[in-house]
Amino acid sequence: MAQDTTGLKLNFEYWLDKAIEWGQATTLESQKDVCLHLPQLQEFLHQLYGTVKHLGSTEAIQQFPLIGQLLGRLCWNPFVIGYDESQKTLMWCLCCLYSSEPQNAVELKANSWVRSLLCHLLSSSKWESNQAETSAFISALGYTSADYYSHLVKNMVISLVTELRENQFNGLHVQESISASRVNAVSIFCVPLITLPDLTPLLETLLLYHGSSSKEILSSEFLEAVNEAFLKKKISLPESAVFSLWLRHLPSLEKATLSLLDQLFSIQLNSVEEVAHVIKDSLLPKAASHPAIFRTVNEIFKNALMETDGTPEVMTIIQVFTQLFLQARQNENKQHKFPLKAYFPYHHQPLVRGLVRRPFELPATYWSQHLKHISDILKALVGDTNVSSLNDLFEIWFLVACFGEWLDIAAEQLLKAAVEPDAMLWLLAFYYCPKNENQQRTQTMVKAQAVYSHLMMLLSCADLSLKDLEVAVHRVTGTEQCCNQYLTTHLLTSFLLFSPSGYKVAEECIYHISEVTDTSKEVYNLLIRTAFRFNHSGEENQRTLKLLNELLQKLRLKI
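Above: the chain's sequence. Below: its structure in token form.
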């Protein structure tokens, strides 16, 4: 090996002299001489790369002190970089000189120099603006400039992808493995070229590449740039690559989630279908099939809910996201499914299992029984002496709130089926009033029972008027506690939608409530959630769906 290195050093001096002699090959004599030596030069570069790829950047410079001068000169010679695989080999040699963890100012400066050369190798603008000879050289090859650079980039990407993939499958062969610092360098040189369409296969390969080190080998600048370009729809990536990006780089996942929330806040929520389309398009529900991603996104949603003081819009977004997540998880291959506990590790598992069941998975006649089961579990949990802190109570409430579809069905079941009302009313009372300080939830429950009893008396009325609903309306307009107001509004809205004659005064009554209270957003979000479910139901709900759309149109103007 020592003898080989000695020979390589002698050749090194020869080729450095040649590189200095050639310059940028601006004369006819120098161009002829370069062309005569290209095959031997490429063989030397292969040998040089074969040696330095097993050395660290510091050791490589110690053995070949003038390696930077040689590579730098060759990179600016259009005849050299245009020949066969010379450009690829020069790039790999440069990557070997890159320090993934620079220790001093010299190494930082060297890294900057390497990055500039790597960018130059794939930058047509620099060549064409600074080197008139390049155009003549490309023309002599029979290419236009655009074709030449396009082929150059494609070939380079293919070579890099092939080498990375072979290394991934061949990781046990230490002598053949690519060092983490070189993979890191490749990711850095991609940063200014992220949006180049031909680079997509390399981006995908890098994002799916995992070395033997437990530390992240791709540069944070690269991961941030890819995420930014993806979020702005400047690049298209396979789902597997996007999910890998979010799994390996938490800031990118956080930014993607916050970007989704910003996007949803900036548009008027005309329908849940629109909300669902935007959320689906973000790929986050599908990515959340991995528990680590789900827990992170859920935590961000939870913080957004607290920061906005539980606004109905945020609650609707969270509930729609949860439904889309369950749908994506259901479509997954059973062999690759994670257990529910991986998504909700700190929650009471029987409650999780009850909430995760989708309504369409059960016969409608079983819904009330299932809701009673959820209510009983929840009541036992809340009454448990272990749930002593407000934080514990909030975590239980947030879990229930995420599956708000069941809460809407509970309000409907109270008016559409023969049910045990106390279990349903307690479930709704807990949602709207989770804390029971000063018997607050108990009082809410009592008032809810009074409203419910009055509505049930009106259920058989053939010809309802707004005056008939005065007691219930007064419960909404006359109460000072938001939890009482919202719960009564929920019950009254469900009555107007689902009672035989409620639809006749629904528009007048709901608009009256929204005029004299601040519940218009609550009602609006309840209506769009109900419309979303009914859009996928049968003919029997078409009248209600028509009424929902009319009410939404009226309320949309108000909010």
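Residues 249-343 form one domain.
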